[in-house]
Amino acid sequence: MDETTAPRRLRELPSWLLNRAARQATRAVAARFAAAGVRRQHFTVLVALEESGPSSQADLGRRLGIDRSDLHAVVGDLEREGLVSRERDERDRRRNVVAITPAGRATLRRLDEQVRAAQDDLLAPLSQAERDELERLLARVVEHHARPR
């Protein structure tokens, strides 16, 4: 079933619309990342490290909700490309501390351009004011459901 042939009652449900929009967004971003030779989790880790600074691998995984073995593979990919460094924590030799490198920051800037282009593709039918309003409303919904109950 596609967006144009779905029953009207489905097309009127905000949850159905959000799901379809999320699928379109995922495809748009994934295509841009694939062209750049990275995956979404690579971008996610680089963003987190740039924003929050060096982090233990365990803390990074918990904060991003990435499974431990998946994160190990992602960090390994990024380390092989010279985008992050991974070193033993001086205070606790059992832990690895991961940090973004200058090459990682440069790559992140290029990936940011790809993400912006994907957002532009996704939101092409909306004016800038409509995009701002959509972002504000979606953030409000997400924040509401993120609160502890």
Number of domains: 1
Shape summary: elongated
Count the helices. How many? 7
CATH architecture: Orthogonal Bundle
Mean of all residue-level pLDDT scores:
93
Main sheet: which strands, in order across?
1-3-2
CATH superfamily grouping: Winged helix-like DNA-binding domain superfamily/Winged helix DNA-binding domain
CATH class: Mainly Alpha
String of helices and strands: HHHEHHEEHH
Strands, total number: 3
Q: Can you tell me the CATH topology? A: Arc Repressor Mutant, subunit A
End-to-end Cα distance, whole Å, is 35 Å
Residue fraction in strands: 5-15%
Q: State the helicity in percent bands.
A: 55-70%
Assembly state of the chains shown = single chain
How many strands, which pairing sense, and closed or not: the largest β-sheet? 3 strands, antiparallel
Low-confidence stretches: none
From the helix content, strand content and strand pairing, which structural class follows?
A: mainly alpha
- Radius of gyration, in Å, reads 18 Å
Plain-language structure description:
- Helix content is 68%, strand content 8%.
- The protein has seven helices and three strands; from the N terminus they run H-H-H-E-H-H-E-E-H-H.
- The longest helix is centred in the first third of the chain and has 23 residues, at 14-36.
- Helix 2 (14-36) packs across helix 6 (102-122), helix 3 packs across helix 6 (102-122) and helix 4 (57-64) packs across helix 5 (68-80).
- The protein starts with 7 loop residues before the first helix and ends with a helix.
- It has a three-stranded antiparallel beta sheet with strand order 1-3-2.
- The protein is elongated and about 60 Å long.
- The protein is mainly α and 149 residues long.
- The chain has one domain (11-118): Arc Repressor Mutant, subunit A.
- The model has no long low-confidence stretch (mean pLDDT 93).
